[in-house]
């Protein structure tokens, strides 16, 4: 049950933060058009191919953390924990404070019972990052109430994942 809750919260975090990707790319650029096309695509397999192509075409894109998290969600739905960890690590590499990526990789490693020190470390970093979020004002695309709810959801997911990773490690 806890792992399902963390999975659902990670997916909701990706959706919550994907709106920021639009703000990170230049409007009406080829990158923006490609990203919009990806988010409009309904077929998951087609969307995955488009995401992979986006990564190749725009290797310096500020939207890459969101692109990687869409890929993480795809592989989470498929139950492919190795790919979840792979693309979650890519998201962390370009955005080390990405709470959703930290939680996804921590969860994936815990489920696989691999690199449990890293799993606990990432979950702890997610908890720490949520604490930092509490001191930040709501971004422009969030009301104060939405920001507080997002922080609350992140905190619950991060603490739950930390407890889960620690329990698996023992």
Detailed description of the structure:
The structure is a single chain. The chain is mostly helical and about 170 residues long. It has helices at about 1-25, 30-40, 45-55, 65-80, 80-95, 100-110, 115-135, 145-170. Helix 1 packs across helix 8. The longest helix has 26 residues, at about 145-170. It starts with a helix and ends with a helix. About 35% of the residues are buried. Residues about 1-20 have low confidence and may be disordered.
How many separate domains? 1
Question: Mind summarizing the main beta sheet?
Answer: none
CATH architecture: Alpha Horseshoe
Low-pLDDT segments: 1-22
Strand tally, please?
A: 0
Average pLDDT rating = 88
Shape: globular
Instruction: Name the CATH superfamily classification.
Output: Tetratricopeptide repeat domain
Summarize the structure.
The chain has helices at 2-24, 30-40, 44-57, 64-78, 81-94, 99-112, 116-133, 144-169. By secondary structure, it is an all-alpha fold.
Question: Which characteristics define this entry?
Answer:
170 residues, 79% helix
Topology:
Blueprint: H1 2-24, H2 30-40, H3 44-57, H4 64-78, H5 81-94, H6 99-112, H7 116-133, H8 144-169
